[in-house]
Amino acid sequence: MPQSSQNPANQRGFAAPQVAFQPDVQPRREQPGFGQPRAQRERGGLIGKLHTCCEVFIILAMSEIEHPGFPANDASAHANLNAAELAALAIAIRQWASELGFSALTIGEAGVLPHMGEGLRRWLAAGCHGDMDYMVRHASVRIHPVELMPSVSRVISARMPYWPDAAPAAGVLGNGALAYVSRYALGRDYHKVVRARLQKLLERITRTVPVNARVFTDSAPVLEAEFAQRSGLGWRGKHTLLIARDPGPPSSSGSWFFIGEILIDLPLPVDAPVPNHCGRCTACLTACPTGAIIAPYQLDARRCISYLTIEHPGSIPEPLRPLIGNRIYGCDDCQLVCPWNRHAPQSVEKDFAVRNGLDCASLVSLFAWDEAEFLQRTAGSAIRRIGHERWLRNIAVALGNAPKSPEHLAALRARAGDASALVREHVHWALGRQGA
Ligand code: SF4
Ligand code: SF4
């Protein structure tokens, strides 16, 4: 599960349910901006006047505006914007985000809330980050975006749905001869897609007003989900990922989305957090195969299959291997059972379409890939980041959990002398499970 994809394990585990939420009284679709108004220029202002006609604001597209008051390359010039102009710009930014494929965009303060640091410090102190030592090294920066960008005043968070048109997850998970790949990783690498779109969004902003800004999606030590929650992009579910509740149609509710953010020095009006709608549900805690959700809103990454198959570089602890089943890259179980995903939309992004039949490939066929084939078939995919050795390690575990068969045995025997000690060790474990 990612959530920047939402999700990498590095974004999880330190949600703070104790946050005092302020109810967002407006349904998301009714909040200003999404799919709605456009800005009008009048006598050089970002907006001069909002026309109301049949109760609909008609504002001309800001993207067509060049603000005559801004000298080129003078980012401080936006200090001249008044509150109404900033509000109009926020509306236009949401409209541009919608045009670029984001399902929602919210704006929050960049300053730190006390719970953010406390939650992360507790999580790190308990060792829940596993081998992700960079989490410790960058802890301060995660909590303080100002250390990444001294002039930052707002964090703009945006989400983009990714659920692809793929083989039904339950069917793949129920067939031990098949490989389950987390649904976010079946298409093009989300880092590339989301970052490129955010970059385009930033370009549209800078065509209107000069700003200092930086774009991120799981590419820098930023508490992405925390900042996204703070500005009302969704709430953090008991599985620690962000969930959205959008009225439809069309609805973009659920958690199958990536998030990314723009750190910006523009004092745009901020959005309020939304209430948590988990209620008494505990479906994700019950469904987690490894018990990684140790309590509501607390994830121990060391037990999370997403962490074990992607982030963890070494040997997978033996007691956890049987629990991994056929999940060879990530895990979606806590999201698959979440009631908020029942009516989640399918992504229309071609970039997230399934590549190379990875939605329901056999373990044996994937285990046969040599490194060159792995690199060629995973080019442009997030999967490539784990490398061929971890790929084989993960599939060996899945083959150890697969139904006993001559085909599985033969595939494992063919790798028993692999050059990698890590792969050999997992293959030998799997051979034992296959009764060899
Ligand atoms: S179900 Fe458990 S193991 Fe799977 S991604 Fe969620 S927390 Fe991790
Ligand atoms: S499964 Fe239930 S408890 Fe878990 S995140 Fe979804 S609504 Fe919340």
Secondary-structure blueprint:
Blueprint (H helix, E strand, L loop, with lengths): L50 E3 L2 E3 L24 H17 L4 E6 L4 H12 L7 H5 L1 H5 L10 E8 L7 H5 L6 E2 L8 H19 L4 E4 L7 H7 L4 E2 L5 E2 L13 E8 L18 H5 L5 E3 L2 E2 L5 H7 L9 H4 L2 E3 L3 H4 L26 H5 L3 H7 L9 H15 L4 H9 L6 H13 L3
Parallel strand pairs: 5-12
Antiparallel strand pairs: 1-2, 3-4, 4-9, 6-9, 7-8, 10-11
The protein binds iron/sulfur cluster (2 copies).
Question: Characteristics of this structure?
Answer:
11% strand; 4-stranded antiparallel sheet; 436 residues; 16 helices; elongated; alpha+beta; 12 strands; two-stranded antiparallel ribbon; binds iron/sulfur cluster
What does this structure look like?
With 436 residues, the chain is of the alpha+beta class. 32% of the residues lie in helices and 11% in strands. The protein contains 16 helices and twelve strands. The protein has helices at 83-99, 114-125, 133-137, 139-143, 169-173, 190-208, 224-230, 283-287, 305-311, 321-324, 333-336, 363-367, 371-377, 387-401, 406-414, 421-433; strands spanning 51-53, 56-58, 104-109, 154-161, 180-181, 213-216, 235-236, 242-243, 257-264, 293-295, 298-299, 327-329. It has a four-stranded antiparallel sheet with strand order 3-4-9-6, sandwiched between helices. Strands 1-2 form a two-stranded antiparallel sheet. α1 packs antiparallel against α6 and α14 (387-401) runs parallel beside α16 (421-433). The radius of gyration is 23 Å and the shape is elongated. It starts with 50 loop residues before the first strand and ends with a helix. The structure holds iron/sulfur cluster (2 copies). The site of one iron/sulfur cluster (SF4) has 13 residues, from α8. Residues 237-239, 243, 278, 281-284, 337-340 line the site of one iron/sulfur cluster.
